[in-house]
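Table S5 (text form). Sequence records supplied for joint modeling of the two-component complex.
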Amino acid sequence: MSGVRRAVRRAPSAWPWALAAVVVALWGYAAAVAPFPFGRDAGHNLARFLVEMVSFLPAMFVLVGLFDVWVPRRVVERHAGPQAGPLAILWMVLLGTLQAGPLYGAFPVAVALWRKGCAPRNVFIYLGAFSALKIPMLTFEVAFLGWRFSLARTAVTLPVFIALAYVLERLLPAGVEIPAGGEGPGGVAGASVTKEAVAQAER
Amino acid sequence: MELLLVITAVALLASLVADRRKTRLAVRKGLMMFMGLVPTLLGVLAAVSVLLAAIPPATLSRALSGGGVAAVAIALLAGSVALIPGFIAYPLAGVLKDHGATTAVLSGFITTLLMVGVVTLPIEIRYFGRRIAVVRNALAFAGAVLVAAIMTIVLR
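The corresponding structure-token record, covering 359 residues in total, follows.
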């Protein structure tokens, strides 16, 4: 009885492994037992995603760690904090467009910026630039969809996501906190963050 | 991708020269964050692998090739759910264009693909909390509709 209860309690942390095991099983079945395009494709997709993830995420996180240790809070606050001027938009767009990789790679950077005192709107501008305007990807877009389409899309998207970032900031309650991380095993952030959040709350 | 590795390597070296202890702390922090994300990420990627295998690109391109509101709606939804790397998404969009997809379909698909991540929502929630993650995605979806509309007017 208690075993069942324990299993249920643990289920949320087991689902990723179970899903991955299913994909591997499908792929194994396709490879070893019978040709089975669905299983083969699923396995190949997972392998491709994992390679993509391993090839850039650790470097990204190390960079975030270095940022966390070296960049003083007041520097971020001065350039992109709530009191920073419109120039902050330029910094955020530059920071976002120069990186590569899927959007989930930008989340740790965004959270690190936020914790260092970056205004929420600027965090969302960064996310917008990262997702929609990556310069390495623009060359791809031009090659397949043409200059006219790519430039028009860039020119239209830029003001739209900047506006969305301001709207999003207005929608959030004042002084909103993001999860402090570290809850449960393998929280997304170190303990120093919670201390920082406490210090911020005291101010 | 290579640029990121180069920048990280240079920053790491500079940091090592400046302060060994601080560098070790930074690397450990970064890798701990990475390890914390691995399970969620693995689950999301496994789910997407199955989804992507279940809907072959050919099916998608047939559904999106027509014009009309239905095609735009499908494009917006497909782009929101899909997690397709750019080096596959743009060639796919090129195929759609050759098959007669309209500007609204193309820009709707690409914009939601880039800015809305329904399947990566579990990851986003871990970082930002449920409320911010959901609102950000909803707004990004609305933004994509707006972009598709403006693009249609601009590129007529």
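Note: Chain B has a mean pLDDT of 87.
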